[in-house]
TrEMBL record:
It comes from the Bacteria. Gene3D superfamilies: 3.40.190.290, Winged helix-like DNA-binding domain superfamily/Winged helix DNA-binding domain (1.10.10.10). The keyword Signal does not apply. The lineage of its organism: Bacteria, Bacillati, Bacillota, Bacilli, Bacillales. Signal peptide: none annotated. It comes from Paenibacillus catalpae. InterPro entries: LysR_HTH_N (IPR000847), LysR_subst-bd (IPR005119), WH-like_DNA-bd_sf (IPR036388), WH_DNA-bd_sf (IPR036390). Residues 1-58 form the HTH lysR-type domain. Keywords: DNA-binding, Transcription, Transcription regulation. This is DNA-binding transcriptional regulator, LysR family. The keyword Plastid does not apply. Belongs to the LysR transcriptional regulatory family. It holds the Pfam family LysR_substrate.
Length: 294
């Protein structure tokens, strides 16, 4: 079993679909099926089983997948160790970032870091913050950047926080807000994501109940903040979004939300990592770089 076989088992387990796993691997499905058959002959056990709802690993396949993950982790650790022996800043840096941060903040930062350390290669995963935390827990990435407050027992650094803003096409009278149509950001359906995201939602609800005795008038729901903003720009209602999505060029009215005690409602962006990984030159330099940039 080689490193690519280990990735094959991982993706089949995650996707429960040979078609989707093949897409992630940039392989054809017949090529993927052929390689799995070769592994089955090599180990003498069935690795996958097909059902109407998808493709699953057999108990033997799950055992092989667990072994493959351990093998990949040890291989990555050895690569890091060998590159670090000379304390040169080079090699592959594995970074996980929240999708919105990856879109709005990350590209110029990586360009600047690459200019400083041209021998560094990046392996970047953009995903939901809860998924980034899982990758960090499983040690599949060196550093994770997440939006929102998550429980993380090791090193963390606050990169920045942003206000939560009420936006509308024109200035509005807050006393009349319950009578106006709201474009609501609808959180993802995933239970793990919904649980992680609920903290901000609860804070916004607290703000509403402090100011109003009736619920908001929900006119529309959208699953992306950008969509909420575009609907607002068309005059279809107001919305409540993180400040990172609002720029002067948008031409919308924006008001930062504050609780009655004067405290602003804000959303934090954290850099998470394990302190011992700073023994790797590439991680140490990146952590220092991000701290200096923020």
């Amino acid at each position: 079993m080689n490193e690519k076989d280990a990735v094959i088992l991982q993706y089949v387990a995650e996707e429960q679909s040979l078609t989707k796993a093949a897409e992630r691997l940039y392989m054809t499905q017949p090529a993927l099926t052929y390689r799995i058959q070769q592994m089955e002959r090599e180990f003498g056990v069935p690795i996958i089983m097909k059902h109407a709802k998808g493709t699953y690993l057999t108990p033997e396949g799950e055992a092989l997948a667990a072994f493959a993950k351990k093998m990949r982790d040890e291989m990555n650790a050895m690569k890091d160790y060998l590159l670090n022996m000379s304390r040169q800043v080079k090699g592959t840096f594995r970074l996980g970032v929240a999708s919105y941060y990856g879109l709005y903040k990350l590209p110029p930062l990586l360009r600047k870091f690459k200019d400083l350390y041209p021998e560094v290669q990046f392996n970047v995963t953009c995903a939901l913050s809860a998924e980034i935390l899982d990758l960090l827990t499983e040690q599949e990435i060196h550093v994770g950047i997440v939006r929102g407050n998550y429980q993380w027992p090791e090193a963390k650094y606050l990169l920045h926080d942003e206000p939560i803003c009420l936006i509308s096409r024109e200035p509005i009278d807050l006393d009349k807000l319950p009578e106006l149509p709201q474009i609501l950001y609808s959180e993802p359906k995933s239970k793990v994501v919904r649980a992680a995201a609920s903290s901000l939602g609860q804070t916004i609800q607290t703000w509403w109940h402090e100011h109003y005795s009736v619920p908001p008038l929900i006119a529309m729901q959208a699953d992306a903040y950008e969509t909420c903003k575009e609907l607002v720009k068309q005059g279809l209602g107001y919305s409540i979004v993180p400040g990172v999505f609002v720029t002067p060029e948008d031409g919308v009215y924006s008001l930062e939300l504050k609780l009655k005690n004067g405290e602003s409602i804000r959303r934090n962006t954290w850099m998470l990592y394990r302190e011992h990984t700073r023994e790797l030159a590439i991680v140490d330099k990146f952590v220092d770089f991000m701290k200096s940039e923020h």
